[in-house]
Fold each of these.
Amino acid sequence: MSEAASGVTIERPDPVVTPLAGLIGAEVDVDLREIDDDVFGRIRQAFLEYVIIVFPNQQLTPDDQLAFARRFGDLYRYPHSPGMKGHDMVLPIKLPSGVRRGRWHSDATFDERPPAISILAARELPSRGGETAFANQYAAFEALSDGMKELLAGMEAVHDASSHNRREEWTTHPVLRTHPDTGRTALFVNSEFTRRFADMTTEESEGLLEFLTTHAHRPEFCYVHRWRPGDVVMWDNRAAQHYPVMNRPEGEIRRMWRVTVAGDRPRYDAPDT
């Protein structure tokens, strides 16, 4: 007999939220296939607070992962990246093995409306390596001096997809971004997609942009996730950067499924004075 048919309300315990680092990340112990609206609300609250959430020991099908993502909003389709056969909104991720250099970034900031949330599920893991690092961009902003914050408040930057051989895909975004749900301010430039400041040349932009994109991932802002079988990790592209660590043995597979939630156009709301 179902819970509804029996007329009995079963009290489910609140999900346990365990912080993972000083300024970013928490683990939430819950089965994502069996969450009601109340539990989802608590997950969303933890997500907005901690910026990335790790869900251990999941057994999600593509439909399960899509259903969870849709609780947050419409889905985002990556340009020029084919999805999984039969589930075109699920993007298979297979990075090269061996030791290679990655790039710190927020996803697809060359888009006028970059994705808001990424949800990555581990499907097959190497014997070692293949971590993902995350950096809190609220913390990156808050650690800047008052003078630097004042300078950046009126600035915009040009983002393009030239690192993906598509230089013609570009847009401009504010250098500081107001999160649409929390109202907090985040630094919003990254070394993969941000090319220069608007109304400046690349040469003129170079020094300040290099400082900001390096400052963005100071170690104290970061959490490094060591993937385990069954892990699902979601992060907020509006307030975090991430870095795929490509350091696993040659020939060993790291296979992931990614589902992405669509976002809005970045904006900066100056604080009231």
Amino acid sequence: MYKDILVHLDGGDRDPLRIDAALTIAKRFGGRLTGLFARTEHQRAAAVARRSSDSFEIAAKHSEQQFSAAATNAGVPMRWWRLAHGEAGHVLHETVVCARFHDLVVLGQHHDGKDAPEELVEHVVLQSGRPVLILPAVGTYPSIGTNVLVAWNGGRESARALHDAMPLVEGAGNVEILTVRPQPSTQTADQTLPPLSIHDHLASHGVTVTREVLAGEDIGVMDLLLSRAFDQGADLLVMGAHGGYHLPFFKGAGTRHILKHMTLPVVMSH
């Protein structure tokens, strides 16, 4: 269960959406919510000096009041953290470190005008070792995790993501496992092994799933995932995240594609 949740806040107009989503999850699991104020500094002199400007302090105070009021109204135990200043490297490093001390991290997709480093979400996903729920930069999401699409290829990252998201998957009304295979496999299964079935594994958790295996020749795999999620009315996509160290195959490009073009909330783990 998610008993200790972190939500990132930067003083932007999407903060209330992330607060509401994080509070809903915290209430569901009887957990505590921590609000982390971390944003980039607009005033160059303050950033270079690694100190907070007046505008940074005003934004932090407003964010704290907004967060505290929402958590109090929801009856959720909460605590407030904030960074001392907004130098970009400090924001990236400290947000990752804070994330490591929580069960789930709630972030917002980067967009123009967002007061956070563009690479923040990717850094947290790849370096925190924690599951990250990312909310899109547009739209509202009154329900998250009632209709779940899981991207599954049997690899390490997809296994990590599925099991990190299990508290949400177990409570979903509908779960679909989607496997995309660009070409048929030519490998012969080891006949000495028992049948390996993700259905059977999830059934042990009380989860009934449907599974679809699709070919990905005519459409990019990541676009296919988003298209399938839209067609199924999914309100959550669960997928593994890849870093850029897989060169020359560069699987990290798929992760970045989702982070840029996501159309629904996504849980990622690496």
Amino acid sequence: MTRALRLVRRRLLTAIPVLLIVIVGAFGLLELSPGDAVDAYLASSGGGDAQMIAELRQAWGLDQSATARLLAYLAALAHGDLGWSVSLDRPIRDVVMERLPNTLLLMGAATALSFGLGSALGIVAGARPGSFRDRFLSIGSLALYAVPGFWLGLVLVIVLSISLRWLPLAGIETIASGKHGLARALDVAQHLALPVASLGMIYLALYLRLMRAGMAEVWRQDFIRAAAARGLPRRRIVLAHVARNALLPPITMLGLQSASMLGGSVVIESVFAIPGLGRLASEAVAARDTPLLLGIVLVSAVVVILANLLVDIAYALLDPRVGSNEPAS
């Protein structure tokens, strides 16, 4: 079994207790919060009598103890059942699977933008540490990193959507457009341009600074001086030796930032009215829909674990030392 496969097996085994801790912790926090789905329903419907309240609590399983509801939820999860949404009156698995692709598309595009462009600009800055372009990009990235994502999104909406009318204002695609194939893909890309820029530009600055700092450190290593002494072209030294060795910290941060980017999508999806997992979470909070919130938290944890698993595999491919000390099976 290869190093990567051994690493995947170990990560999957450790993911089981992590998911259990996430579920129990989220359930406990939701139990400590005031109100429940019945209270939210009564507030939105104008109230009700005691008999109706008792019937609702019994129908939604809220008349049982917290321990009984937690055990019932874990038993349902063991059979692959995420439960029933009391606010939407639909299976949670169906609701989450409808919204999850939009969030994954937003996160994937934002990650590709931030990591790809940020690393490329970091290579440009780190190719000649201390130069004018290095200082210019470093100062610009610091200023960009200080900008809140929601504020950047609102500014982009005002400038590009309202004033210039270049891009759509909100949504994931044009409603009832009837477009298919490439035309629909272009329509989705136009709608995602602003939210992807708002979510990805902040992390772009982070990857730029990480890449630049890593390259500045690698330039001091002896093997770089040896490569220059052998007469290798500077472009080859920068790309094949300096940038490759400086790429490990940004890749590590890529896994760590997956949870932050998923959390940031809640705000971005609300600003741009994207029907994704983040917006669904805010709707579930407003409705005090505990089963739906637990399902969203569980699926989000799985997404973060899978993202970190992909990062670990990439890390193992780039660094032969990763996973080499694990016993072979």
